[in-house]
Amino acid sequence: RAKATHGVQLCRYEYGMDEVARKRRQMANDLRDAIAVDGLSLAYQVQRSLDSGEVTGYEALARWQHPIDGWIAPQDFISVAEESGCIIELGECVLRRACREAASWPEPHRVAVNLSPVQLTRPSLATTLAEILLETGLPPSRLELEITETALIADKTSALHILRQIKAMGVSIAIDDFGTGYSSLETLHSFPFDKIKIDRSFVLESEKSEQARAIIRAVIALGSTIGMPVLAEGVETEAQLDMLRSEGCSEAQGYLLGRPSLEGPSESKPSEIIRTAIQRG
Ligand code: C2E
Ligand code: MG
Ligand code: MG
Ligand code: MG
């Protein structure tokens, strides 16, 4: 297989690729096993209104503890699931669990669930979702789905059709990681979003970069023009929180307000401190 001149390097390269592929196949198999026994967990991260300081909802984030390798980052196992196709089962598991758990929370907070672009290519998504809502008893108004811009590229017409069906059920839809993907004003205009989630990279840069602040300001202005609330993700400092509030951002999420927690709805900071920080000004 190897070319004569660079034989050794090519062999090693191919061996390396095989090894990577083998590991990913193994991970996909282990993930399938975990899904089959409902072995994934969900961590919840609080979202708060910047007007009132009230909790507006919790984002559900998938967590997987591999029997040998320990906790694996979602970035890693979600991409393996998407590649191997088991993201459909994984996504359904996450949805069912999030709806079931949210239905039993003491407060009727909204739960936000991430959808993979692959899930949005399945015409059966809306039916599955309807079954899950019925089965868990969660009112549709308490569910929000987060999708990224990439989800809308593959087959725009069919994705739009599925999203409209979902919205018609009373479930809301947020555009996630806004500003990092393939954004166009046309996308915002033609899809029935209820919320824009501005990517945490802009919040991270905002203290140092006037340009990042300008982008945040522009997204908030855009949101207010088209009537979509804007949530800023990745808020870690009080300075960022102050800036977002003074720019008129509607909601925030981030380590300052609460880390994702496996204990269910919870906040890592004394909520009074945060509430005063939010209500100041
Ligand atoms: P995302 O939907 O943008 O989720 C937010 C990520 O930012 C989470 O990482 C969260 O822990 C992290 N984060 C929140 N606040 C802060 C902060 O203040 N600072 C920093 N540095 N990070 C913060 P996580 O849980 O590792 O998830 C990463 C990504 O994996 C998610 O990004 C989402 O795209 C994907 N993901 C997670 N769960 C699911 C799922 O159930 N289904 C699908 N399809 N994707 C999922
Ligand atoms: Mg998200
Ligand atoms: Mg996000
Ligand atoms: Mg993100």
UniProtKB/TrEMBL annotation:
This is EAL domain-containing protein. Coiled coil: none annotated. The chain holds residues 658 to 938 of 938 of the full protein. Residues 24-274 form the EAL domain.
